[in-house]
Amino acid sequence: PISEITELLLYAADRAQHIEEELKPNLAMGKYILCDRYTDSTIAYQGYGRGLDMSLINNLNQIATGGFTSDITIWLDVDVEVGLSRKRGQATLDRIEQETIAFHRRVQRGYTDLYVSYPSRIVRVDGSDSQETVQQNIQKILQKRLFS
């Protein structure tokens, strides 16, 4: 187990390194970049889920990213219990996936609040649909946002 602050700092350090090694060089070559997690995840998981100070998280996100912001966040919104039952059907669970239902409900609340606060940047996808339908919906969103 690690402390909540240590977790936050490790995510920030990893993000800073990822930006230097991957994002900046690839953006300089004109490439599109799709990240699995970015600053919205830190707000939802460490802010809402862990209850850490939001101004601390925002400051660390700013330092770690150097101001690099995402153009779009795709939020896969699914009922917490459904999402966890899907994950728990797999072989291994990470630390976050092993957290309580209450923790995951707070995280979902965080994403909901972010979605309401940034409706032009955050796109909600119904994660309760089939994997194929979710994938098709994401592809349509990316086609529309990136190539129109």
Explain this structure.
The protein is 61% helix and 7% strand. It starts with a helix and ends with a helix. The protein has a two-stranded parallel sheet with strand order 1-2. The protein is globular and about 40 Å long. By secondary structure, it is mainly alpha-helical. It has six helices and two strands. The model has no long low-confidence stretch (mean pLDDT 93).
For the secondary structure, the number of strands is: 2
* Overall radius of gyration: 16 Å
Helix coverage percent of residues? 55-70%
Low-confidence parts: none
Structural class: mainly alpha
Strand content: 5-15%
Q: Tell me the distance between the termini.
A: 46 Å
Query: Biggest sheet, open or closed, and with what strands and sense?
Result: 2 strands, parallel
Write down the overall mean pLDDT. Answer: 93
Number of helices: 6
Order of SSEs, N→C? Answer: HHHEHHEH
Shape: globular
Strand order of the largest sheet: 1-2
